[in-house]
């Protein structure tokens, strides 16, 4: 199912290689963190699905609002992600959880599980680089948001913190 979702999301982002590459990088980091942190297989499945669709709301946010601001991505993305997952045959409970994660992945004060934490950390690892964030801002953000040993070590190593 994850392979189908991967291909669906590449097609969804047709014409926008930067968003397609972003989701692939976030997925890779999320999967690695989940494996290294020893999360169970089902949780890892949810994390990987969420990583693949986490930014699905950018396109409709831009079309409807002319902006891809985080809250707009969350609002527009959650129902689209849920519908896509159900169409692909995902369990409704998993589709609901992934939609919740999509609808909150820019909200950092309500992290309620390892799936949410790992998704946020993976997205930050990619965004730090893609947005050219300063070493000082990366260090502050890692200290405030990261909780996994693996994600923290990856950030410290990649950005020489």
Helix- and strand-based class?
Answer: mainly alpha
Please identify, by name, the CATH architecture. Orthogonal Bundle
Give the overall form.
globular
Main β-sheet: number of strands, strand sense, barrel status?
Answer: none
Q: What radius of gyration results from the CA coordinates?
A: 15 Å
The span between the termini is: 37 Å
- The number of helices is 9
CATH superfamily caption: Hypothetical protein af1432
Beta-strand content estimate: under 5%
Q: What ranges have pLDDT less than 50 throughout 5 or more consecutive residues? A: none
Indicate the percent of residues in helices.
over 70%
Please render the helix and strand layout as text.
Blueprint: H1 2-12, H2 17-37, H3 41-53, H4 58-65, H5 70-87, H6 92-102, H7 114-130, H8 135-145, H9 149-158
Helix pairs in contact: 1-3, 2-3, 2-7, 3-6, 3-7, 4-5, 5-6, 7-9
Describe it.
With 161 residues, the protein is mainly alpha-helical. It has a single domain, classed as Hypothetical protein af1432 (Orthogonal Bundle). It is 75% helix and 0% strand. It starts with a helix and ends with a helix. The relative contact order is 0.14.
Describe the structure concisely:
Helices cover 75% and strands 0% of the residues.
Q: What are the salient characteristics of this protein?
A:
161 residues, 9 helices, Hypothetical protein af1432, mainly alpha, single chain
């Amino acid at each position: 199912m994850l392979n189908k979702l991967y291909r669906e999301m590449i097609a969804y982002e047709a014409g926008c290689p930067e968003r397609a590459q972003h989701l692939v990088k976030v997925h890779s980091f999320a999967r690695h963190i989940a494996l290294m942190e020893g999360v169970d297989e089902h949780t890892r499945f949810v994390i990987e699905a969420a990583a693949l669709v986490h930014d699905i709301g950018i396109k409709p946010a831009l079309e409807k609002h002319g902006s891809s601001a985080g809250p707009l991505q969350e609002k527009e993305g959650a129902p689209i992600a849920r519908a896509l997952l159900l169409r692909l045959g995902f369990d409704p409970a998993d589709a609901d959880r992934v939609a919740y994660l999509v609808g909150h992945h820019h909200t950092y004060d309500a992290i309620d599980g390892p799936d949410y934490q790992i998704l946020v950390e993976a997205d930050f690892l990619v965004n730090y680089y893609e947005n050219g964030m300063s070493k000082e801002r990366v260090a502050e953000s890692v200290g405030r948001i990261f909780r996994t040993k693996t994600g923290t070590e990856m950030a410290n190593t990649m950005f020489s913190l």
